[in-house]
Automatic annotation (TrEMBL):
Protein name per its UniProtKB record: DPAGT1 insertion domain-containing protein
Organism: Timema bartmani
Residue intervals of the DPAGT1 insertion domain: 83-123
Subcellular location: Endomembrane system
GO terms under cellular component: endomembrane system; membrane
Segments crossing the lipid bilayer: 12-32, 38-60
Pfam families, A to Z: DPAGT1_ins (PF21383)
InterPro entries associated with the record: DPAGT1_ins, GPT
GO biological process, alphabetically ordered: dolichol-linked oligosaccharide biosynthetic process
GO MF entries: glycosyltransferase activity; metal ion binding; UDP-N-acetylglucosamine-dolichyl-phosphate N-acetylglucosaminephosphotransferase activity
Keywords: Glycosyltransferase, Magnesium, Membrane, Metal-binding, Transferase, Transmembrane, Transmembrane helix
Record keyword Ribosomal protein present: no
Topological type in the membrane: Multi-pass membrane protein
Amino acid sequence: MTGRSRYPSSVFVGDTFCYFSGMTFAVVGILGHFSKTMLLFFIPQVLNFLYSVPQLLHLVPCPRHRLPRYNPKTNLLEMSTTVFKVSDLNVLGWLCMRVFKVLRLVHLKEGTREKKDYVECNNLTLINFVLLWRGPTHEETLVQILLIIQVNIISAFR
């Protein structure tokens, strides 16, 4: 199955397998007392959660789909964005966006559309962050970068 699921994938294992494999990791980690080792596998997911908190708590508007946008003209993935009014942000949301902008963790474009009170920012996910850092990227390259991040995190704690 591994050979068939490489890019371009001819097999999609589906949600059920993803849930099953995740629970298998969790059960093995708990029963085998590998909780610290298992945490290493989940660090990218924890980082993704922490980066996504402003959208998950609705401090910043959160669209239904936050996956990267596919550009058929270039055959590349681009970071997905959300557009909202500045007035839609509360003080905490505005502060989060300013801090993220200073730390270069977000692409914040002010004054979009006809009126100047609209703001456009990338969706806050690890995948979109990689696209922010790297620029538009082919899907195969993006997957390799994400796997390299995973391997480097695990290797850093060996």
